[in-house]
Amino acid sequence: MADLKHPRLFIRSYLSFEECKELEFIHKSSSTVGYRPNVFSTTISHLIATNSSHLIMPLIPIRERLKDKLEEFFGCEYELFVEFTGLISWCKGASIGWHSDNNRPYLRQRDFAAVCYLNSCGRDFNGGFFHFQDGEPTTVMPMAGDVLMYTADNRNIHSVDEITDGERLTLTLWFSRDASHDEDVKLISLFSNNLLHSSVPDSCIPLPASNNMYWFSQDQASDELLGFNICWARLHVLGGTELLDHEFVNILHALQVVHFYCWKASALQSFKVRVGTSKIVELSKSQAEKVSDLKSLLLKDTELAETIFYSLTCRENELHCFDWTNFVAAIAAWEDYAWKLRKEIRSSLAYWRAHQSLYNVQSDKRL
Ligand SMILES: O=C(O)CCC(=O)C(=O)O
Ligand SMILES: [Fe+2]
Questions:
Q1: 195-233 in b/e burial notation, b at 16+ Cβ within 10 A?
Q2: What pairs with residue 158 in β-bridges?
Q3: Measured between alpha carbons, how far is residue 339 from residues 2, 23, 310, 335 in Å?
Q4: Does ligand 1 lie within 6 Å of residue 191's CB atom?
């Protein structure tokens, strides 16, 4: 190990661009308001609770690779349990001062942290540099694919500068030596209840959680008079609220499909279309009224929503415009994608239950 005084590891380009994009899709279509101001998070238990368990499948091999790498580097093979896995984004105004990650009585079980950067400073957001108080590296400028691993104790006191623009996204994991804090055991029991004993017919349509999990206001204490529903806000910044019609069972369903379209279309380099060249489908009068009623109810502070969720690239005069034909194709592709993952999770669950551990069954040599 390089530095015993400050045990840490920084690896560039550990995750591929495609892995980052897939996790971005999952987060942007599933997040809830987070645990700190201007922070949003997607936890595995939330994915399970919203009938989106299958969306954890892309996380499983990444999580496993991170754990193996961390155990190897810090010399604690087979000693660690994942205590928490989450996709976490910080928007304009979010920051955190000097701290260590086990600095609260209820966080004492945390032994290590792994932070994977899923998008890039200067391109997707501004600000948000990571600093260690002592030792090398001192400062990390987050770039998509990079990973930072460090001990959760006071040998690695760190801070994150305020985000000044855009949305900074990470996959963050904490690890513990204490088996009673193994999140896998808790998650497997949630999966089992959800996927095995469900009385409702099998479906990939997400089910939104309670409204307060999606309600953002600058002052969390204020009531629902100001602020916005983050699902509506995310659709709004993509121009997608004009597309809502009978195709979508609920707002989360629309958000997943629209973000899926954004993910796949940008991979094909055909997503950014100059203003004026796209065909937008006109809604019927009654559909338009319904959307507008919902919008006024759920997007009370449009300006704030745009400040929080507009990406930097959106502002560069290049607007995201929808091509209706591609969009209809994306609806079908999203369904295929979801069912494929659903099948995978169903076939993995028996192995997970037997081992009480979430792992990549398909690549497992024991089979
Ligand atoms: O996102 C980061 O770079 C680190 C965040 C952090 O320090 C924390 O969540 O404790
Ligand atoms: Fe931290």
A1: beeeeeeeebebebeeeeebbbbeeeeeeeeebbbbbbb
A2: 99, 132
A3: 45, 17, 30, 6
A4: no
Atom of ligand 1 nearest to the CA of 130: 3
In this structure, are 279 and 187 located in the same domain?
Answer: no
Domain that residue 327 falls in: 211-340
Q: Using a 6 Å cutoff on CB, does residue 311 contact ligand 1? A: no
Ligand 1 atom index nearest CA of 170:
1
Is the CB–ligand 1 distance for residue 182 below 6 Å?
no
- Which residue, by CA, sits nearest to atom 5 of ligand 1? 160
Q: How many domains does the chain have?
A: 2
Residue at 345 is within a domain: no
pLDDT digits (tens, 9 = 90+) for 129-181: 999 999 999 999 999 999 999 999 999 999 999 999 999 999 999 999 999 99
Does 60 contact ligand 1 (Cβ within 6 A)?
Answer: no
The verdict on 29 and 159 lying in the same domain is yes
The neighbour count for residue 25, using CB atoms within 10 Å, is 21
For 104, the 3-state DSSP assignment is coil
Q: Clarify whether residues 215 and 180 are in a common domain.
A: no
Q: Examine the domain organization and report whether 312 and 167 are in the same domain.
A: no
The residue from 185, 203, 221 where one domain ends is: 203
ipTM > 0.85 for the complex: yes
Establish whether residue 160 lines the binding site of ligand 1, counting it when its CB lies within 6 angstroms of any ligand atom. Answer: yes
Q: Are 360 and 60 in contact (CB under 8 A)?
A: yes
Closest CA to 259 of 165, 180, 327, 162: 327
Same domain, 46 and 116: yes
